[in-house]
Amino acid sequence: MFDTINLGAFVVAGLLLNITPGADLLYIAGRSGAGGVKAGVVAALGIGAGCFFHILFAAFGLSLVLATSATAFTVVKMVGAAYLVYLGVVSLRSAAARGSDDGLAPALPRDSLGRVFAQAILVNTLNPKVALFFLAFLPQFVSPQASQPALSFLFLGCLFNINGTLVNLLFAVAAAQIAGRYRRHEGIGRALKGAVGALFIALGLRLAISSQN
Description:
By secondary structure, the chain is mostly helical. 76% of the residues lie in helices and 0% in strands. It starts with 6 loop residues before the first helix and ends in a 5-residue tail after the last helix.
């Protein structure tokens, strides 16, 4: 119906990619630690919502702008990098603050669930590498004889995102449970806050120096 090929291989490859550590999983881990299961789940859903933007861009060819325009790619890349560095600095400042009893929890400060959701969308949508990934990955599983390639793109993208969101939800629950075990260990919590902040900054710098290829 959707003119796809090798769907089983697509699902397996997608799941393997979804468990690869990156900014999305790091953000979910931070929010799960800071606010528990509820905040982690909201973060995972926000990442999934951001992913839908990339799916639509890929399906209707808008990602080609990022793939072919060095200026557009650089602008989006630098904004995304700056945002990741900002989140990292916030986390490091939280790690340096004394008198907190949150233990492992505050990889990022406590915020409303709406803000957590919005930040998760930005973490995902401001990464141009995600857009280019969909543009390169999805066409391999669209049949050359597809009568409506855009529909095939949308189907594969939604399938990838649904599976990815399920993985992220499980990860959020696990991260929140692990965080709960260490809430009373302030030293461990402060060290992990600092590590999360440093990783965010490293991811932001890596994105800043990345190329389109």
